C-alpha cells in the first residue's frame, strides 16, 4: 500500500468519525449512525472542494498568487507543489538572465542578427537586424522574412543551398544601403542570418576604382605622345651615338610597358564597373581557340610546340571579346614561362553536368604551392625580375579572374614547381548553348 493511501485511510478525521459512528450505532441504532456518517463525509467533501477552489484560483494566475496552504492531505500536496514552483521560478529567472545577457551581447554586435526557423520565419532579431531589414520584432515575429525583404537576389539566396560566399545586397532598405549577408545553419533546422553594413566600404572601393580609371585615362595621352616622340627619335638617320640609341631603346620599352599597364588597369576598371553589363552572345569556342592558336604560335615564334585539343563543339553563352582576353592571357603566360622547346596545350571539353572547361597546360617552370592562392592578386609576382623580363604587367590573372566571375565560372590552378602548370576556367552547365560533341 502506498504512503498516500496509508495516510488517507488512517487520517485522524476518519478514525475519529468511524469511532463516533460505531458509538452512535451502539447507542441509537443504524439510521442515526448512517446520518452522522453522511454528515461527516459531507463536511470533509466541503473541505476538499474549498482546497480545490483555492488550487484553481492559483492555477488561473500562478505568477500573481502564492501556492495555497491547504489542509489535510492537500497541505502536503501544496507543500510539494510550492517547492517545485519555487525551483521552476528560480530556473526561469536564470534563463531570463542568460537570455537578457545574450540579447545585450547581440545588440552590441556590429552585425545584424536574425534567427529563422526551418520555414524562414522570424523568431528573434537584434536592433541592427531590425534596422537592416526594416523589421519590428514585436510585430513581425512568426512572419516569413521573404514577405518583408523581397529583393529577388535575397529570396534566391535563401532558397539556395550554397552559403559559403556572402551575398552583397544593394538597396536593402534605402537606395544607398549596401549589406553583406551570410546564412549559417545551426541547431535543429534553424538558421542564423547575419548582415553587415558595408556601404562605407563600397564607397571607398568605388572611389578607388574611379581613381584608378581616371588616373589611367590621364596617363594614356601623355604616354602615347612620349612613345611617339621616342619612336621618331629612334628612326632619325643622323642618330649615331650608341648611348643615345640604347637610352631611346630602353625608353621605348618602358613606355610600351607603361602603356600595357594602363591598358590593363582600364580593362580591370571596366570589368569591375557595375554599370558594365556582360554582353551576352553565342561564342563558338572552337573558332576562338583556332584564332588563339595562331596568336600563340606567332608569340612563340617557333620556340614552343603550341597545339590545340578540341574535344567538344559546344557553344558557350558569354562575351566573345572578354573570353578572348581571358583565354589569351592564360596562353600568353604559358608561353612566357615555358622555356624554349617546351609544350603548350590549349584544350576545350564538355563535362556534362560538371560544365565546360577551357584549359592551358604547359611544361614550364611551374609554381610553388605557397604562391598559387595569391596568383590572382593585382601586381603579385612569384619572381619579380623574371616577370618584368617577360613583359608582364602583374594584372593578367586578375583580369582572367574577373572575366571568369562575370561568366559565373571558376578559375582553377594546378601546378608543380619545375614540371609545369595547368590553368583551367570551368564554366557552369547553364552557359551551354549546344551539346553537340565531336568524336
Q: How would you describe what is shown here?
A:
By secondary structure, the protein is an alpha+beta fold. The protein has four domains: 3-98, no CATH class; 109-197, 2-Layer Sandwich (Beta-Lactamase); 220-272; 281-431, Histidine kinase-like ATPase, C-terminal domain (Heat Shock Protein 90, 2-Layer Sandwich). The protein has helices spanning 3-9, 12-28, 30-60, 73-107, 127-133, 137-140, 145-148, 152-159, 199-234, 242-272, 285-300, 320-336, 369-372, 384-389, 396-406; strands at 112-116, 122-125, 167-170, 178-186, 190-197, 281-284, 305-310, 315-318, 343-350, 356-362, 410-416, 420-427. The strands form three sheets. The protein has a five-stranded antiparallel β-sheet, with helices on both faces. The longest helix is centred in the middle third of the chain and has 36 residues, at 199-234. It is elongated and about 155 Å long. It starts with a helix and ends in a 12-residue tail after the last strand.
Distinct helical segment count: 15
* Cα separation of the termini: 90 Å
| Number of E-type strands | 12
* Series of secondary-structure elements, N-terminal to C-terminal: HHHHEEHHHHEEEHHEHEEHEEHHHEE
Order of neighbouring strands in the sheet with most strands: 2-1-5-4-3
Overall average pLDDT: 80
- Note the overall shape: elongated
Which parts are unreliable, with pLDDT below 50 for 5 consecutive residues or more? 435-439
Total number of distinct structural domains: 4
**CATH C-level of the largest domain:** Alpha Beta
Major pleated sheet: 5 strands, antiparallel
What's the gyration radius in Å?
Answer: 41 Å
Structural class: alpha+beta
Instruction: Please report which band the strand proportion falls in: under 5%, 5-15%, 15-25%, 25-35%, 35-45% or over 45%.
Output: 15-25%
CATH superfamily of the largest domain: Histidine kinase-like ATPase, C-terminal domain
